[in-house]
Write a structure and sequence with these properties.
The complex is a heterodimer of chains A (about 300) and B (about 270). Chain A is mainly alpha-helical. Chain A is about 75% helix and about 0% strand. Chain B has 13 helices and no strands. Chain B starts with a helix and ends with a helix. Classes of the chains: A mainly alpha (about 300), B mainly alpha (about 270). The interface between A and B is large, with 93 and 95 residues.
Chain lengths: ~300, ~270
């Protein structure tokens, strides 16, 4: 028996872990470090041909960034998306999960598949459809709203409405994912809790407030965390729908980083943008965990 | 009565999810210009399959389709192998620093992937992999999420099974091959669907590393089409149908495994 309890042979460890850790090391850890170093250089299109052209510039990229109104605009837009879109998508996911999980529901798995369909579909194709739904002249949304006497809106072309339009599309596309996690959480709540609450005459709202929400707290914390991290990386929707326009009103941090890096090849500057985003996500995550700890004590 | 109202609500949400897709399907069969009318039409007046013909005959769609199938399958197979090996090691091998190593991998998940795009691009360029499928295959072969999924699942395999095999003289590789892989089949299928769909739908990275039009995957070809044929709504709708149909079919067939994976990812840590 004692022989088995001992450590595995190093050769096995190396063979089994080597490929994965090697790939993660080379294509994730190393690039993160490289990007960090790059953010202190003026790496640009000339340095692409010959790396020796890149020079260390200290914190110049970062100070340039903080002086740049476009960066602040992108930051504002990203927070707009996270703070409005995040809670909205979590609320929709929770409502859909509760509807599906209700004992009244027939054809549960069919509804589940349908609700999940937007999640699995290709964003570029979804963008083709939604650009048309939002079309100012022929779009379904304006047509639908015309029944309520709302005059046509140029959803993607209007600086005020472009961001809400992207949020709506993102919620539509993503809510099914968190919904599944919420369903798993709901199924872990013992049914008899609700039964005894009903005997004592608790209203549906009271049941939700005093049973569902507290029992679901660990799931909600997890989902909030993942949603915040994911939504800060807002990119694909504005990239395919608006390219950041109109008037930079949908330009997100990641889109800004992408444009600076891969369109203008200001790679040092772009890397600095990436690290500012990383810092923000890190702080937001830490803050959320802190709040969570305080509320449980 | 309450049940009726409940199901009306459920159906309403289902319609919101479905109508965009149904409309895409319907518009793809409309004759040119029919979708640009007010009020919008939900069904074609003159049914036509000419947009699908254009896609296949003139726009080389079958080529992009094959590219997408090939690259998604290759990434899936390679990543299944690499991630299952690492997941097994983290679940069942005993070595110093295992927990620390695993925790640091998990912590790395909060680093936005976009940070690495520029350096990885430069690295692949130096290696001469830009404009080859290696540029998609190699960085995609290991994923922290994949390792996590397999490890969680493999942890539930009883140690006694592995110890018994060791008593019989099985090597670590034989244990992986004969015990872990067969028992992990459900989660391997889950990971396979995740990876396949992820690669199929991925758009940004292929766009960055592939320049040659003949190598395009479906989403890039579709994005390209959006740029060139922005007026041909019906044609773009047909292109969208061809892009999403395979993933929708795959999802409906294998949804059990897909949903199981999300639940596993959501329950622990």
């Amino acid at each position: 028996m004692s022989r088995i309890r001992t450590r595995s042979r190093w050769s096995s460890v190396v063979i089994f872990l080597g490929p994965a850790l090697g790939a993660i090391g080379i294509f994730f850890v190393l690039p993160v470090l490289a990007a960090f170093i790059m953010s202190f250089t003026d790496f640009d299109i000339y340095s692409l041909g010959n790396w020796e052209y890149a020079r260390f510039v200290g914190l110049a990229n970062y100070s340039k960034l903080l002086d740049n109104p476009v960066f602040w605009q992108a930051l504002k837009n990203t927070f707009y998306f996270v703070l409005i879109g995040g809670p909205l998508s979590i609320a929709v996911s929770l409502m859909a999960a509760m509807m599906l999980n209700s004992p009244l529901t027939r054809l549960r798995s069919t509804f589940r598949v349908v609700y999940f369909l937007p999640v699995v579909t290709t964003l570029v194709a979804v963008a083709v459809i939604w650009r048309y739904i939002y079309h100012p002249k022929f779009g379904l949304l304006n047509y639908f709203l015309s029944f309520f006497d709302v005059s046509p809106v140029d959803w993607l072309g209007d600086p005020v409405w472009a961001m809400p339009a992207l949020i709506l599309m993102a919620v539509w596309k993503n809510f099914g994912y968190n919904m599944i996690i919420f369903i798993a959480g709901l199924q872990n709540i013992p049914r008899d809790l609700y039964e005894s609450a009903m005997i004592e005459g608790a209203s549906p709202w009271q049941q939700f407030r005093y049973i569902t929400l507290p029992m679901l707290a660990p799931t909600t914390v997890f989902i909030t965390l993942m949603t915040i991290i994911g939504y800060f990386q807002f990119f694909a929707e504005p990239y395919v729908m608006t390219q950041g326009g109109p008037l930079n009103q949908t330009l997100s941090i990641v889109l800004y980083m992408y444009q600076e890096g891969f369109r203008w090849w200001n790679m040092g500057f772009s890397a600095a943008v990436a690290f500012v985003l990383f810092l923000i996500i890190f702080l937001a995550t830490a803050l959320q965990m802190r709040l969570q700890k305080e509320s449980t004590h | 009565m309450k049940s009726l109202f409940h199901h009306i609500m459920l159906t309403l949400v289902a319609l919101i999810c479905l109508v965009p897709f149904l409309w895409m399907l319907s518009a793809s069969f409309m004759s040119p210009g029919e979708s640009a009318r007010f009020p919008p039409r939900f069904f074609p007046e003159n049914w036509t399959i000419e947009h699908y013909q254009t896609l296949f005959d003139r726009l080389n769609l079958s080529r992009y389709f094959i590219n997408s199938v090939l690259i998604s399958s290759a990434v899936t197979l390679l990543s299944l192998l690499v991630n299952s090996m690492a997941g097994y090691a983290f679940a069942k091998l005993r070595f110093k620093g295992k927990e620390t190593l695993f925790k640091s991998l998990m912590a790395a998940l909060i680093i936005p992937g976009q940070v690495t795009m520029l350096p990885v691009f430069l690295m692949l360029k130096e290696m001469g992999f830009i404009n080859t499928y290696w540029a998609i295959l190699i960085p995609g072969m290991a994923s922290i999420f994949g390792i996590f999924l397999i490890r969680q699942y493999a942890l539930s395999i009883p140690d006694s099974l592995i110890e018994a095999a060791k008593m019989d003289g099985a090597t670590d590789f034989q244990i992986y091959r004969k015990i872990i892989l067969p028992l992990c089949k459900p989660i391997l299928i889950t990971l396979a669907i995740f990876t396949f769909m992820g690669t199929w739908n991925d758009f940004l990275w292929p766009l960055i590393v592939l320049n040659d039009q003949d190598m395009y995957t479906l989403p890039i070809a579709l994005a390209n089409l959006m740029g060139e044929h922005v007026q041909d709504t019906e044609l773009m709708m047909a292109g969208s149908v061809m892009t999403v149909l395979p993933v929708i079919i795959l999802f409906i067939l294998l949804q059990k495994y897909y949903i199981q994976g999300i639940m596993m990812g959501g329950v622990k840590e």
